[in-house]
Structures are given as C-alpha cells and as structure tokens.
Amino acid sequence: MSFPGDDPQLSTAENYRAFAAEARGKSPRYEALATAVADDAEILNFLGHLPVAKRQPNLLFAAACYLLDEPADVAGLRRLVCDRRDELTATMLTRRTQTNEPARCATLLPALSLLPQPLAMIEVGASAGLTLLVDRYSYDYDGHRFSGTDPLAPVLSCQPRGPVPLPTRVPEVAWRAGLDLNPLDVRDADDMRWLECLLWPGETGRRERLAAAIATARRDPPRVYRGDLLTDLPDLARHAPSGATLVIYHSAVLAYVQPPLRGQFAEVVRSLDATWISNEAPGVVSGIPAPPPDIRSFVLIQDGRTIALAEGHGTWLRWLS
Ligand SMILES: C[S@@+](CC[C@H](N)C(=O)[O-])C[C@H]1O[C@@H](n2cnc3c(N)ncnc32)[C@H](O)[C@@H]1O
Predict the structure, then answer these.
(1) Beta strand pairing call for 173-180 and 224-226
(2) Which residue's CA is the nearest one to ligand 1's atom 23?
(3) How far is the CA of 178 from the centre of ligand 1 (A)?
(4) The pLDDT of residue 5
(5) H or E stretch including 19?
(6) DSSP secondary structure string, 27-68?
(7) pLDDT class for 38, splitting at 50, 70, 90?
(8) Is the model more confident about 286 or about 124?
(9) Considering only CA atoms, which residue is closest to atom 12 of ligand 1?
(10) Where are the beta strands (DSSP E) in the chain?
(11) 251: Cβ below 6 Å to ligand 1?
(12) What pTM, to 2 d.p., does this model score?
C-alpha cells in the first residue's frame, strides 16, 4: 500500500486523480488542483523529468506553496513550471514530504500508557520530533480530559469510537530520541515554513495545532538524529537508559520505505529488546496481513498484534483488543 498519490504502479496522472479523491471533503483547493494537474500536459511533462519518487502531489504542492508563499492554484503552478522551473525542480529534489502531525500522539497515547513506566522512547521517521512530545500535550477524548507536562502545549482532541483503555494521565518519559533521514529543526524558521507548506489548505485546526506544537517543542527541543531506520536504529537504542521500557514507534513512515526493505526493518526492531508500536497505513508492516480493503484508516500494531484502528491524522481511535 502507498499513500494516495504515491503509488509506483500508477501513472503520474492516475496518482494525481487518486490524490484528488483523497483530498475530497478535506481540501477543495487541492482536490481541484490535483484534478487539473492530472489533465495538464505541461505540468505532467515537467513531473516526467523528475525521479518517480519526486512526482508526488504533496511534494509538488508544498514546493509551490513554499515558492509562492501561499497554496497554488493551477494558473500559479503553470507559471512556476514555465518561469521558475529550475527553482521548483531544486525545491522538489532537495526537500521531502515530512508532514509532522502532533495529533497522532492522541492515537498512540493509550498504547504507550499501558506499558510499564517510565518509557525510553525512540521514534523512527520523527521529522521535527513533534510526535515525540506525547507527555507534553494535553488531551481531550470526547470530554475525558487530562493535562500534559507543558501547560502551554496544545490540547489534542481525539474521538474514541467504542471502548478505548483511556489513561488518566500522560505517560512518564525518562528519555526520548528521534531518528530521521532528514531531521527538521524546530528552531529553524525555514524548516518550520516547509512543515507549514506541507499542510493542505482548508483542513481545519491543523495549522493552529502545528504552530502550538512547534512553540511547545521550542521550549525544550527534542533530539532528532540524522540516520536511516534500516541501519542506524541499533546504535541509537544502545543509548536508551536501563530501568525504562524501551519503545520504538513510528507513524506514517513505512510507506516511504521500499516494500522489500520493510521486512529488513522488522527484523532490526525485533532484534532489539523493545516494544514495537506501528501506526501506519494498512498493509505496510511486514508479516502482518492487510485488513479488509474497506479499512482506509491507519492501523496500530504492537509487537505483531493489531490493537486499534486510527484516523491517519489522529482525530479518532477504535480499540480492537
Ligand atoms: C510523513 S513524515 C511522518 C512524521 C511523523 N512520524 C508523524 O507521524 O507526524 C515521514 C518521515 O519519515 C522519514 N523517513 C522516511 N524514510 C526514512 C528512513 N528510511 N529512515 C529514517 N526516516 C525516514 C521522512 O524523512 C519523514 O520525516
């Protein structure tokens, strides 16, 4: 499974149509833009000169937003392709889709809270580290509320669908570290502008939540190390303190890892004395059968067992076990 708009089996035009379908009801502007790109010979020709992995709608639209200082429409995108082709190419080649959604912490939190405390947490594919700050945010699960350790941090709202083992407090974090191919620095204004550009226009609440989470992270920045989850995880895990439950987790990451390498990653994690929590699109975790095709949410898997379904941006959670 790939993210909509990023399926190597599909043509570029088909990927943009799949992205348009995904954006329907969330971002009318990007739905219209992706639909227009799918029929635009000039923009498709421009994309055809990029490596396949760099043709993604999310990357093109974020790069356009970055260069134009606002989300593009199709006329603006055509002008960029004609008049600023080199700049657009360079932006797409040097940057990545690294959307960091703090609200995913709300869907990870119950599983983390059920583990023996305190935790030593490693997030692979951590981007700017905003999903490493699970204990700093406050939470509201349909009226079941509790506060995190940073009183100024945003409140993350998540709807429990059915019974969920909700904690009454945030987990105790003894140590945390992130690993990413390209860590984004919360203190760097340009890195944070890129994160903002990755948001879709029209999605309510995400921009404000991102700004509040960045402010939270800046008060005590998380450490995100440069490295590859396939090769650098064991070294990082060696730095975790003893006396804490080591938990290795990731969300919205494995779809970016080539399918044959996902099994290699599973072997690396299983070789470490750690709890493994995965919050990913269905079918991307090696050795776990994909859920029925009508499941389009993320799937939470702990140590090989599917424990919950979660909306990809953290807005709801359905517990399965
Ligand atoms: C879509 S972002 C998700 C960020 C964060 N986990 C979240 O849920 O908000 C995916 C991140 O995975 C990182 N990534 C992709 N492949 C990776 C690899 N092989 N090793 C380390 N990080 C990787 C990307 O650089 C990017 O920052």
Answers:
(1) parallel
(2) 125
(3) 10
(4) 63
(5) helix 12-23
(6) -HHHHHHHHHHHT-HHHHHHHHTS-GGG--HHHHHHHHHHHH
(7) very high
(8) 124
(9) 125
(10) 119-124, 138-141, 144-146, 155-157, 159-160, 173-180, 224-226, 245-251, 275-280, 298-302, 305-310, 316-319
(11) yes
(12) 0.94
Task: Tell me the C-alpha distance between 222 and 87, whole Å.
Answer: 31
Any ligand 1 atom below 6 A from CB of 258: no
Amino acid at 137: Y
Structure token digits, residue 254: 């494995």
Q: Please tell me whether residue 274 adopts helix, strand or coil conformation.
A: coil
Top mutation candidate among 186, 214, 226, 256 for ligand 1, by most atoms within 8 Å of CB:
256
What's the CA-to-centroid distance between 66 and ligand 1, angstroms?
20
pLDDT tens per residue across span 180-234: 999 999 999 999 999 999 999 999 899 999 999 999 999 999 999 999 999 999 9
Q: In the beta sheet, which residues pair with residue 226?
A: 180
Determine the Cα–Cα distance for residues 110 and 167; give it in Å rounded to an integer. Answer: 6
Tokens 């583990």 belong to 115
Nearest protein Cα to ligand 1, atom 8: 251
- Check pocket membership of 180 for ligand 1, CB cut-off 6 A: yes
How many CB atoms are located within 10 Å of the residue 170 CB?
22
Query: What are 47-63's pLDDT values in tens digits?
Result: 999 999 999 999 999 99
Alpha-carbon distance of 176 to 123, in angstroms, equals 8
| Ligand 1 contacts CB of residue 278 (under 6 A) | no
Report how far apart, in Å, the C-alpha atoms of 110 and of each of 24, 45, 78, 252 are. Answer: 30, 46, 46, 18
Pocket test for ligand 1, best of 127, 182, 194, 278 (most atoms within 8 A of CB): 127
Rg of the chain, C-alpha, whole Å: 19
